[in-house]
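wait is this the right file?? whatever heres the structure
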């Protein structure tokens, strides 16, 4: 069996891949590379993006935009986590709940977030609530489906053993079902967090006045191309960081679950 690369080597490879992408981007932008269907004539190089990022860091706009986006994500995603886990457990544990709830959820799930925006504007009296609703919708379905999958795949022998020992429904749920389904639930929460950021940015581009999505769209309308990429990178960092935080917290809270390391 081949020796596994040390963590330092793996991190060096990952950093090298990012550096290679940045170098290629710099060269293509400086050369105004035109490949026909793809052109870099108007794409700013990384050096200009870094300058624009430092300008944003020194500006009070960053705190205002980040604060608005974070509050919307926390509100919408928090509600989606509570509702999604509850519905997922009900659907996974009850055939009647599955027959009643799963068909309309499966009907609504493929609808993209953009299609919900006009309806949310009609339903809610404020644009703030409509954006939070879009964030809620984006996170809800990944959480529900992963929770259902986790609950449905809990070892039935464990449940039968708990029942034979006199365990009631609440005890079985707390001691068997939730610990067994927790890895899938955490995965759904991490996916839902990334989706909620995507949906929020879409909503902010259309009806927001503050937020990272609004900042990115405003930069496009003003033709500040470097700021567009800065906004994109901020969105990526926030989405990646929040998903990483959730998965790390999940590992801490689930000492019984150790995922198999990649070879």
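ok assuming it is, sequence goes like this
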């Amino acid at each position: 069996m081949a020796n596994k690369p040390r963590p330092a080597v793996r991190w060096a490879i990952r950093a090298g891949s990012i550096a290679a992408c940045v170098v290629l981007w710099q060269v293509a932008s400086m050369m105004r590379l035109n490949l026909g269907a793809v052109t870099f004539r108007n794409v700013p190089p990384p050096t200009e993006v870094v300058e624009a990022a430092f300008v944003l860091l020194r500006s009070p706009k960053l705190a205002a935009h980040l604060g608005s986006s974070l509050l919307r994500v926390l509100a919408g995603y928090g509600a989606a986590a509570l509702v999604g886990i509850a519905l997922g457990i009900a659907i996974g544990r009850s055939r009647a709940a599955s027959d009643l709830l799963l068909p309309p959820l499966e009907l609504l799930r493929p609808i993209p977030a953009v299609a919900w925006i006009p309806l949310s504007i009609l339903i809610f009296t404020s644009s703030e609530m409509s954006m939070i609703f879009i964030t809620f919708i984006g996170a809800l379905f990944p959480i529900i489906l992963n929770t259902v999958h986790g609950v449905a795949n809990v070892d039935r022998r464990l449940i039968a053993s708990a029942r034979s020992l006199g365990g009631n429904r609440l005890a079985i749920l707390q001691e068997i079902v939730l610990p067994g389904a927790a890895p899938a639930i955490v995965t759904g929460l991490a996916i839902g967090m990334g989706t909620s950021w995507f949906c929020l940015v879409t909503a902010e581009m259309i009806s927001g006045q503050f937020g990272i999505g609004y900042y990115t769209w405003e930069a496009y309308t003003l033709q500040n191309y470097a700021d567009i990429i800065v906004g994109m990178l901020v969105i990526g960092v926030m989405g990646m960081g929040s998903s990483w935080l959730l998965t790390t917290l999940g590992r801490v809270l689930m000492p019984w679950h150790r995922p198999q390391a990649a070879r």
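DSSP finds ten helices and no strands in the chain. so i think its the right one actually
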